[in-house]
Design goal:
By secondary structure, the chain is mainly alpha-helical. The chain has four domains: about 150 residues, HUPs (Rossmann fold), CATH 3.40.50; about 150 residues, 3-Layer(aba) Sandwich (Rossmann fold), CATH 3.40.50; about 50 residues, Helicase, Ruva Protein, domain 3, CATH 1.10.8; about 90 residues, Arc Repressor Mutant, subunit A, CATH 1.10.10. It is about 45% helix and about 10% strand. The strands form five sheets. A three-stranded parallel sheet has the order 1-2-3, covered by helices on one side. Helix 1 links the parallel strand 1 and strand 2. The mean pLDDT is about 95. Bound molecules: glutamic acid.
């Protein structure tokens, strides 16, 4: 087999979403697994809907996911001469013909067919008219009227299409812009693509593309159609299901390795293994393990994977990654490698499921004035605890060293003295220091905040109890 070459050919008419990203990942992995080449191509022939901003955002999303391309990006609009050349060849060889049917008439026939319950097909009016090129004329492919074309799909096995199902589809528009079917074939042919891995919504295009390859005297690539992704309710995945664009996941605080791991398991499996490093994915990925049935999007699983990768991330790296999320909360960290900041990161690392959540969990460390969660304050910042807090402040002021173990000893002795359970002191102090009833370990929090801030916040809690 010649060197494997795959491609990812998005239309820049929207941002990169989960489905497209999975297609890109599968193509990238397949190429990497076989030591081949992965190329990027923008199918920008839809002039109305294609936008530079989507080209940029798709590139950014692929780069963020770590799916670097070896060739391209190509742009179909820069290749119009190539399509023209191949179209002329088909025309010269009598494998394509010009058609002058007015679009309105075609539309009328199409509607009639639908109304009569027939599949709309071009009726071949111009097939034997022997027309040459001319204004307003499209070029149609002469589909062989009889026979079948079998797609030997690498995932589904053989799928046969009767030529009766097809028609003489348009390959060139009057403005010299090729249709999707034609551009894709000329590109896959001239770029030497060996494997086309794409969503199964394209399966019905494949017989047409195979016929075009053959008409051009070339061997088609191998095709693999990946079943689609469904939402949790079983309908086709869409925004309704809370599925976001890839960059929106980045902005919500997902790590690229988590998303990649999530995507690879959408339709591909390797025993019951869930966690795959990049090296493992490359080593193990193959098309024979791609499922024949649709995958289901499960946002909770994605969150759980992200939490896993956050726990795996070196703290120094996480400290940098959380910065933009803290910034969005108005918190500027000047020295992200400062030991105290690293400790703060470490304290929330086991609990955060996204970087955004992480920043929110850390917020209390950095604010001047804690906002008390009203419910927490009502429950725990009450008059009866005031004497204990006052005493605690005095003890803390006198404490020679402000360390987790010393603090714990102090709390235990106070609890004993006041005949309270440790938690009866710890919870009010937690609310005083963090504003909430849930936080990282209390002594860890105190250690990170430092003596001065702890005492300041305890005093403020006392003021609050006394109606301040
Ligand atoms: N531009 C097409 C799409 O975004 C590519 C389809 C293909 O892989 O041939 O769906």
């Amino acid at each position: 087999m010649s060197k494997v070459k795959t491609r990812f050919p998005p239309s820049p008419t929207g941002h990169l979403h989960l489905g497209g990203a999975r297609t890109a990942l599968f193509n990238w992995l397949f190429a990497r697994h076989h030591g081949g080449v992965f190329l990027l191509r923008f199918e920008d022939t839809d002039r109305e809907r294609s936008r530079q901003e989507y080209v940029d955002s798709i590139r950014e999303a692929l780069e963020w996911l770590g799916l670097e391309w070896d060739e391209g990006p190509y742009f179909q609009m820069e290749r119009l001469d190539v399509y023209r050349e191949f179209a002329d060849k088909l025309y010269r060889e009598g494998k394509a013909y010009y058609c002058e049917c007015p679009p309105e008439l075609l539309e009328e026939k199409r509607k009639r067919a639908l109304a009569e319950g027939r599949k709309p097909k071009y009726d071949g009016t111009c097939r034997d008219k022997d027309l040459g090129p001319g204004p307003g004329r499209v070029l149609r492919f002469k589909t062989p009227p009889v026979g079948t074309t079998v797609v030997e799909d690498l995932i589904r096995g053989p799928v046969a299409f009767d030529h009766q199902e097809l028609d003489d589809f348009v390959i060139m528009r009057p403005d010299g812009i090729p249709t999707y079917q034609f551009a894709v074939v000329v590109d896959d042919l001239t770029m030497g693509i060996t494997h086309v891995i794409r969503g199964d919504d394209h399966l019905s295009n494949t017989p047409k593309q195979i016929l075009l390859f053959k008409a051009l005297g070339a061997e088609p690539p191998k095709y693999a159609h990946v079943p689609m992704i469904l939402g949790p309710d079983g309908s086709r995945l869409s925004k309704r299901h809370g599925a976001l664009s890839i960059l929106a996941y980045r902005d919500e605080g997902f790590l690229p390795q988590a998303l990649r791991n999530y995507l690879v398991r959408l339709g591909w499996s390797y025993g019951d293994q869930e966690i795959f490093s990049l090296e493992e994915m490359i080593e193990k990925f193959d098309l024979s393990r791609v499922s024949k049935s649709p995958a289901r999007f499960d946002p909770d699983k994605l969150l759980a994977l992200n939490a896993h990768y956050i726990r795996q991330e070196p703290t120094e790296k996480l400290a940098l990654e959380v910065l933009p999320f803290l910034k969005a909360l108005g918190i500027e960290i000047r020295e992200p490698q400062d030991p105290r900041f690293l400790k703060a990161v470490e304290s929330v690392k086991p609990r955060a499921r996204t970087l955004k959540e992480m920043a929110e969990m850390m917020r209390f460390y950095f604010v001047d004035e804690i906002e008390f969660d009203p419910k927490a304050a009502d429950k725990f910042l009450k008059e009866d605890i005031a004497p204990v807090l006052e005493r605690l402040i005095r003890e803390l002021e006198a404490l020679p060293e402000f360390k987790e173990e010393t603090l714990e000893t102090l709390f235990r002795s106070l609890a004993e003295e006041y005949q309270l359970k440790l938690k009866h002191i710890a919870q009010p102090v937690r609310v005083a220091l963090t504003g909430r009833t849930v936080s990282p370990g209390l002594f860890e929090v105190m250690d990170i905040l430092g003596k001065e801030t702890v005492i300041k916040r305890l005093k403020r809690a006392l003021d609050h109890i006394r109606g301040g």
